[in-house]
Amino acid sequence: KSKPLAAILEEPETYSPISPVTVNNQLRKTRSFLNWCVSNKYISVNPLTGLKVIERKGKEARLSFSSSDLTALFNDKLFTETCNTDVWKYWLPLIGGLTGCRMEEIAQLYLDDIYKHDDGYCFNITDERVDQKLKNSASRRLVPIHDQIIDAGLLEYVTTLRQQGSVRLFPELKAVRGKYGHAPSKWFSQYRKLKNVSHDKKSFHSFRHTAIDELREEGVSDSIIKLLVGHADSSLTFGHYGSKLPIKQMRAAINKLTHIPKVPPYGF
């Protein structure tokens, strides 16, 4: 503590750097303050927007989408001229962007996994059926459905599927090597490149990073974020369906996500 910075920099191998998690937490706190500065017109732009440290872990390292990326991805006739065979191309990015759910978690949903809980609807992210798989036990969770998804016509779409005798949310998707997300993953990779979102560290999983980033910037507590995205937290004592699960707080948090452009409702 008594050494000047110049002296420390002369022998960096002597010191252990702070972890990426610590760096990102400090960036998040500073970014929140600068957002307040922007709101109160002390500065015009937050210079830390989108800035974070990425831990390089091969395929696992992913970047968040920028606002221009999201505008490009959701500004397309895809959302106004979708036919029945392409229905998942409309819903998968929208649900992924407004929940932070993984692609496979969405692609394997059953109609019964969408139901009313308290004062709104939720996705039940589960591996209860033989063809459903989750990354780990913490991934098993309830995720309140964002108002924007409801407004887009999800419940009407579910009703239509029930009338048709379907049991899965995307019955046209077939599992390949046990993964319903196989075809969507290949499609989205091609689609994002077509829309000039071609960075090799950006993928469908970037929706998850983007959602988590925005929740943090909105001041949502880490415990609520972990419940929403299915990250393990030894400090949490909520039962999966227990009365103590803070669904109202989770619903309020999920509706703080405003980064996905409004799209025309799905047509039937």
Itemize the secondary structure elements and their pairings:
Blueprint: H1 5-10, H2 20-39, H3 67-74, H4 87-99, H5 103-107, E1 114-117, E2 120-125, E3 141-144, H6 147-151, H7 154-163, H8 182-194, H9 206-217, H10 222-229, H11 247-254
Describe this structure in words.
The protein is mainly alpha-helical and 268 residues long. It has 11 helices and 3 strands. The protein has helices at residues 5-10, 20-39, 67-74, 87-99, 103-107, 147-151, 154-163, 182-194, 206-217, 222-229, 247-254; strands spanning 114-117, 120-125, 141-144. The protein has a 3-stranded antiparallel beta sheet with strand order 1-2-3. Helix 4 packs parallel to helix 9 (206-217) and helix 10 (222-229) packs across helix 11 (247-254). The chain is globular. The termini are far apart. Mean pLDDT is 88; it is low at 239-243.
Write a compact overview of the structure shown.
The chain has helices at about 5-10, 20-40, 65-75, 85-100, 105, 145-150, 155-165, 180-195, 205-215, 220-230, 245-255; strands at about 115, 120-125, 140-145. By secondary structure, it is mainly alpha-helical.
Looking at this protein, list some descriptive labels.
about 270 residues, mainly alpha, 11 helices, 3 strands, about 5% strand
Q: How does the helix and strand content classify structurally? A: mainly alpha
Could you spell the SSE succession in H and E letters?
A: HHHHHEEEHHHHHH
Distance between the termini: 66 Å
Can you give the mean pLDDT?
Answer: 88
Shape: globular
Count of alpha/pi helices: 11
Compute the CA-based radius of gyration.
Answer: 20 Å
Proportion of residues in extended strands = 5-15%
What's the count of strands? 3
